[in-house]
């Protein structure tokens, strides 16, 4: 079984709709992240969380919100989706046990906003 | 602020040829450096990373990278390309110390392997 799972894997929605992307992990890591990937732009950080009570904005948080329901679950919401939020979204986790911590990525959610 | 530049958005090599993917970084503090690989329709996975110590780092699938501080580079190489190496490769940097969780990614280099 995958250590980091994302649901749904693909989603089509319309402008103005609220949508939630979910991430679950079985790695027992405290730190969780949401990124978006756009062709030719690499990955950019949206939000990150160090534990259930610690949530922080990343580089591109406008138009997004998150919820850390438990150590293992981290959800990303688009309150009112717009077409330029069409992208590939990745959840990732890491522990904080050493230098240069490795991040472990889920398989991604492909979102299309019409 | 840290940044990463990957030279070449697309690289094509013949099967069996040398793979060289270039990465240059900027960081105001000693960096941690990473290469991640993304196979089609999958998430990213770590190939290798440099934190401290030996500047030549070996990773999975026969890849290696060398940290050159004087050149602010961390190029990825593999002596002989295989068809299964076709993927997108991302170089990333983070700061040593308390900022080590904050990864900054390059824009990626898509590697094609020609039979």
Low-confidence stretches of chain A: none
Overall helicity of chain A = under 10%
By secondary-structure content and strand pairing, the structural class of chain A works out as mainly beta
Counting helices, strands and paired strands, the structural category of chain B is mainly beta
How does the major sheet of chain A shape up? 7 strands, mixed
Shape of chain A: globular
Distance N to C terminus of chain A: 33 Å
How many strands, what sense, and barrel or not for the largest sheet of chain B? 6 strands, mixed
> What order do the helices and strands of chain A follow?
EEEEEEEEEEE
Q: What percent of residues of chain A are in strands?
A: over 45%
Radius of gyration of chain A: 13 Å
Note the main attributes of this structure.
heterodimer, A: mainly beta, 7-stranded mixed sheet, B: about 120 residues, mainly beta, 5-stranded antiparallel sheet
What would you say this structure looks like, in words?
The complex is a heterodimer of chains A (114) and B (115). Chain A is built from no helices and eleven strands. Chain A is an all-beta fold and 114 residues long. In chain A, a hairpin with a 3-residue loop joins strand 4 and strand 5. Chain A is globular, with a radius of gyration of 13 Å. Chain B has 115 residues and is mainly beta. Helix content of chain B is 0%, strand content 56%. Chain B has no helices and eleven strands. Chain B is globular and about 45 Å long. The model of chain B has no long low-confidence stretch (mean pLDDT 93). Chains A and B meet through strand 5, strand 9 and strand 10 of A and strand 4 and strand 5 of B.
